[in-house]
Amino acid sequence: MKILIIGGVAAGTKAAAKLKRENRDSDITILTKGKEISYAGCGLPYYVGKLIEQKEQLIVNTPKQFSALTGVEVLTETEVTSIDREKKEVYATELSTGKQNNYHYDKLILASGASSVRPKIEGSDLQGVFYMRTPEDAVSLRSYLETETVKRVAVVGGGFIGLEIAENLLNFGVKVSVIDMLPHILPGYDTEISDYIMDHLSENGIPVFTETKLEAILGSTRVEKVQTNHRTMKADAVILALGVRPNTAYLDGSGIELMPNKTVKVNRQLQTNDPDIYALGDCACVTNRITQEPFWSPMGSSANIEGRLAALQISGESVEYPGVLGTSVVKLPDLNAGRTGMTEADAEKAGYDAVSVIAVLDDKAHYFPGSGNFIIKMIADRKTNQLLGIQVLGKGAVDKVVDIAVTAISLGASLEQLQSMDFSYAPPFSTAIHPIAHAANILRNKIDGTLETVSPKEFVEHQADDYQMIDASASPAIPDADYVDLTKVNGVLPQYPLDSKLLLVCAKGKRAYLLQNRLKYYGYQNTRVLEGGLTFNKQYLIK
Amino acid sequence: MKILIIGGVAAGTKAAAKLKRENRDSDITILTKGKEISYAGCGLPYYVGKLIEQKEQLIVNTPKQFSALTGVEVLTETEVTSIDREKKEVYATELSTGKQNNYHYDKLILASGASSVRPKIEGSDLQGVFYMRTPEDAVSLRSYLETETVKRVAVVGGGFIGLEIAENLLNFGVKVSVIDMLPHILPGYDTEISDYIMDHLSENGIPVFTETKLEAILGSTRVEKVQTNHRTMKADAVILALGVRPNTAYLDGSGIELMPNKTVKVNRQLQTNDPDIYALGDCACVTNRITQEPFWSPMGSSANIEGRLAALQISGESVEYPGVLGTSVVKLPDLNAGRTGMTEADAEKAGYDAVSVIAVLDDKAHYFPGSGNFIIKMIADRKTNQLLGIQVLGKGAVDKVVDIAVTAISLGASLEQLQSMDFSYAPPFSTAIHPIAHAANILRNKIDGTLETVSPKEFVEHQADDYQMIDASASPAIPDADYVDLTKVNGVLPQYPLDSKLLLVCAKGKRAYLLQNRLKYYGYQNTRVLEGGLTFNKQYLIK
Which of A26, A268, B119, B201 is the most buried (most CB within 10 A)? Predict the structure, then answer.
């Protein structure tokens, strides 16, 4: 059997190697536009920041090594221009010679990936304008930083690639700022979480400007300034991290069904509308596990899973890919952020009776050196208590909390099930009540009315403006708020009538919850706890 | 309602606080033998090792603070001597005065915990003999280390408390050795995993002697030597970490049903055979989630879950505790170890058609600074592919892998389900193919015959003695083994007939698997891959 694979980074090489292991008689050829295959795209920002010293470390295998290890033929610098499904042929150009070739296939795998969005704006061809998608991109940027005088860099785009490169530039000692045309950075997070991250970045050396559209890059031969709808800023280099677009132009006229965003639509077997043609990785639109709707999640991790499954399917196994959750995790300066499943906004849009809570919890035993907070936003369906999504911030192992949620959501877990799981605990690793179980406890309390809250989003939207703020901290911490010491509350508080609207705020939320519990017992009906306490809301409360 | 709670560390205080929040009208009293409540028992070794500076950091709340926060009455230094279920009374002695009191209850919670096993051997009352269960134990040991000349310490017992204290003593600069009467340390791990840990500890400054029984502690007024069945060793102090026994002697004659190990038997609502009496935490025997059999897992983490659930049940909710998995995690010098679910040995005993694999995998992107290995032993049922258990070793986030497995096992996941989950990935956190999914891939390959192996256990048991060892590493690494370069294998190897028995060994197992795949294609029928490669088996292969 002749199998052609278009593209040779994650999905393509994984499928090729597995196909050859399943049947070494198969004739398998990778056609790829680039010089390299099988490179670590996710490592590029860390090469720029010199956490990874050598370019060679980013290359998992050279084409030659890969062929020797697997028996797969690799044709690099070979750009596919079109396919003919009738003849089962792929047409491609040898980039070094310009020669046109055609290649027959019995099965065809589209793993052509995605490319950086390249906006057509004035100055985008100046020296000092970079993208962050291929090893060449990273090598040119690092070389520019090492050889030119670069004091200020503007990163355009506040997605995770933009923020990763910003962190690494900061490590390089340059001044870096991030601009994004949208109102919030980091798509995939609810707005108040994005805002927290933005605030954190600005406090940690990376000012972020949202609702700021790049209009032009200015300079004579090299970048000198960037012009936005708000201001013109000095910059010695610009990184355009505006996201990616699928590489599927060669499919025009092929009859392969594309989504409106030009990704290739596939079924649960990763087949396109032509059963002999599969699509995988960044160029493919798979399924969202929760909504069962088409979902594009261009990530190296799912690309590998898809490569393996497609190889098995082509080799005669019957596979079914349940799809993705839009999981991601990103390291930022002194803060990690991870997410999976639905945001609260997504869940509402999808018609769920969504309920969420923001919980601030210890990430390991509070007395253990290096302990800190997790900020967990947990989203569930109020009717079924099914876990729908999670967003986690913290200096520590946010990926752990996210991966537990991935497992739980994939298996349809309810909050109750999470609450009583026998998670691992020892002081260097976690807390006696596991943070994710703790968050589930709090969300259950909110669902059943044991805990009544104002969320940070509601707070910012002025929904608590008619509430009097009460500082419920262990010792007074909020200027201009009345202080109430929980341990001294043993009846109605003379200064507050029972119908007072009281917003209870403490460091993280726990002591305010205990105070609410006690006040309710003594007859107060209108108390609310500010979710996330001072820790999450300091951006709004103390400036 | 009058609720008495016997015991005030984890389960007791959790139940008390939650009960009071559910109904502040309840009259709730904790009776506890010790001076402190609510202390961080799991932190004691780290206090000894001075990672935790102050004793006060171990105390979550003093009795006074706890009462002020919760409204619960706490009677410390009050030892319960018996209970009368007819009269619904508890009898207790005030330890400071010797006075006997009786206390009425409507509901009674037994959360009396467990105590160190104290063997009756010669010399156990000498100065310099310590246990590790209460804050007093930790304070006396640290004080002894600081004031006396202590050069050598013998830790008796190779469970996780023993090993944690050994690591912390090492940090203190003393020579420490561990002796254990059993053939393997760390119950809960399969023997080859325990052996790896033992080997690692010995290489990292903590010699471990198994099948070594403490016979006497020798010295005039203070410890000078320990005498075992094998040898007499110098020691300036001895830590007896021989495990714990439930504190349930006061239940003799009460008619409360105990297990053979003297723990209290409870149902899924945490009730004893007397529906007005509950038992929680270290003194209770709950259920194993997988086997549904009674299971004792005296851990602070499950104690907290049980405290919360019992409080809800008593408050009128209908709860059901599905039980534990025997999860644990421990930090050792330069190695973490975690486990959950069944060991392979347990699974076989329980009648499963158990299948397992040992996989050595990157714990994060191999090119990222600080990356290392996970050694994962994954156990499943061959018939259903249900995940049954996991054991994980590594310098990094073993707790993450364990917690994913906890979630998966609790929800009845199969290996297939794990293989295609959308776990979080970025180079600082994980690998593109998540280690737990990777391990599941390998185990599936073993189950379906794509991978044929010799496990380390089989290797040690001489089951591969008639195989010729082939070094399949990227470059020769095993003395006295033939070297075969995978990339040059393109047909039958002249030096090996097709019926040769070949044991393929590489660094971690992957390259040996690729070589096996290729040799099978060329007609070899008797190849085996050594699971875990040199990394896991160096203890057996290179000495």
Answer: B201
CA B224 vs CA A205, B123, B218, B220, B233: distances in Å: 58, 10, 6, 8, 9
Residue B351 inside a domain? The answer is yes
Instruction: Supply the range of the domain harboring residue A388.
Output: 334-414
Pairing of strands A208-209, A175-179: parallel
Q: How many CA atoms lie within 13 A of A286 on its CB side?
A: 31
- pLDDT for B542 equals 65
Q: Which helix (H) or strand (E) holds A288?
A: none
Structure tokens given for A51: 């956490």
What's the Cα-to-Cα distance from A301 to each of A132, A324, B223, rounded to whole Å? 18, 10, 57
Residues A96, A136 within the same domain: no
Tell me what pLDDT residue B161 has. Answer: 95
In a domain, A340, yes or no: yes
Are A400 and B402 an interchain contact pair (Cβ–Cβ within 8 Å)? no
Contact assessment for residue A300 and residue A291, using Cβ atoms and an 8 Å cutoff: no
Of A52-66, A497-511, B86-100, B211-225, the least confident:
A52-66
Give me the pLDDT at residue B40, please. 84
C-alpha span between B123 and A411 (Å, rounded):
55
Are the beta carbons of B411 and A406 separated by less than 8 Å?
no
Q: What is the mean pLDDT of chain B?
A: 96
Task: Using alpha carbons only, give the angle B29, B32, B37 rounded to the nearest 5 degrees.
Answer: 95
Does residue B326 lie in a domain region? no
Residue recorded with tokens 């601009």: A179
Residues A389 and A286 in one domain: no
Give per-residue pLDDT as tens, B456-507.
Answer: 999 999 999 999 999 999 999 998 899 999 999 999 999 999 999 999 999 9
Mutate to test the interface with A, among B38, B319, B424 (most CBs of A within 10 A): B424
Give the pLDDT confidence score for residue A216 in this predicted structure.
Answer: 98
Question: Which pLDDT score, from 0 to 100, does residue A345 have?
Answer: 97
Tokens of A57: 């470390």
| % helix, strand, coil for chain A, step of 5 | 30, 25, 45
> Which residue, among A248, A253, A217, A249, has the nearest Cα to A235 in the 3D structure?
A217
Within B7-113, residue ranges assigned H as helices are 11-22, 44-48, 63-70
Distance from CA of B323 to the nearest CA of A (A): 8
* A437, β-bridge pairs: none
Q: How far apart are the C-alpha atoms of A378 and A305, rounded to whole Å?
A: 26
Within-domain flag for B28: yes
pLDDT band at B374 (very low <50, low <70, confident <90, very high): very high
Cβ–Cβ under 8 Å, residues A376 and A358:
yes
Q: Is the CB of B504 inside 8 Å of chain A's CB atoms? A: no
Residue B30 pLDDT class (50, 70, 90 cuts): very high
β-pair partners for B324: B288
Residue carrying the six token digits 């639905």: A342
Are the CB atoms for A240 and A118 separated by under 8 Å?
A: yes
Residues B356 and B499 in one domain: no
Place of tokens 């002894």: B144
Please report the pLDDT score of residue B477 as a whole number.
93
Give A60 to chain B, closest Cα distance, Å: 9
Residue A515 pLDDT > 70, yes or no? Answer: yes
On whether the CB atoms of residues A322 and A289 are closer than 8 A, the answer is: yes
